[in-house]
Amino acid sequence: xxxxxxxxxxxRGGIVTYTRNLMNxxxxxxxxxxxxxxxxxxxxxxxxxxxxxxxxxMAPVARAIWEQTFWRRIVSRRKPDxxxxxxNFGLIRSxxxxxxxxREGGLFxxxxxxxxxxxxxxxSVIERILRRRLIxxxxxxxxxxxxxxxxxxxxxxxxxxxxxxxxxTNSYGTRLDHFASARKRRKWREDGVxxxxxxxxxxxxxxxxxxxxAVQRLNELGIKTHFTLTMDFQQVNQAPxxxxxxxxxxxxADRGEVTMLGHVNxxxxxxxxxxxxxxxxxxxxxxxxxxxxxxxxSETLTVASDTPVHREVCQDAAAYFSGNSANNLVEVIRALxxxxxRREMMLARARDISTRDYGWDGHVKRLLExxxxxxxxxxx
Length: 380
What we know:
- By secondary structure, the protein is an alpha/beta fold.
- The chain is 45% helix and 15% strand.
- The chain is built from 15 helices and 13 strands.
């Protein structure tokens, strides 16, 4: 079976991690695959067949037109058995069988649309409408549509009820052995400091400033706390809607309570999780959240904003707080701080859930089964 993987969005964030792991698995299993990447992708050095294309600087409308014309021609010439469009957008009336992965929840999530979209500016309204319509059109033109969570599938089908029955869930996984490699778990506040971590690229719905607010209040309450995150100020300052987070993080850094690491290599992440007591994600909208399972596999206690996706992924292995309230986050962290038995129970559940549900090999096995179904003509 010959597979073409459209990974043209693999520039930063979770799609890079996902694509790198997929490359490694396809290479190990001798899958006949070629990956289409942007010229500025950090994945060009991977030892797999790639097509590198100059789409990084294109405006959204120009890129959509390019993909439906020039990319279509490239796919047609390659004549794969399967086109795996791994990031939301596929070919409309694809010339080959197509499997589409929809992983952008914000366009469909009413919480995101109510709380985040208004601060992104008028221009983004048109872009959101066009992107949403293109995703739905791509889904309607695909033999099968995958989402990483059932909650994401529900959101998509709320906007396009005709897709019911065509959308299936294949949860992501992570390389559990990779994150278990540094599993010399730090004792809770062993150096007298509660160390909080957030692993993510910056987008306004990630809300890292809210964690900075909570850290300030914890320090004022006498719980010495420090917040480390894998973002940098340039990233935050340049992002639409990032001004509030930039302000809160800057003041946190000035107080010595916040460390901005910037990008951290995937190989170095296990050690980073191991150095922290708590992984906190205040994101208002996700389709999955790779760092959640990385934290669980690393035995780093997890606190997450109370969203359907976070509850689906973490179940009872995390504590939850209102994503709009720094005060509620403080309350949840204080409750964990005084309850070591609860912390141990959560970590035990995290080990069980990550091992049972989120192994990377399981994700790839299910994906290849979908390829076989489509190639055999048994999909919609």
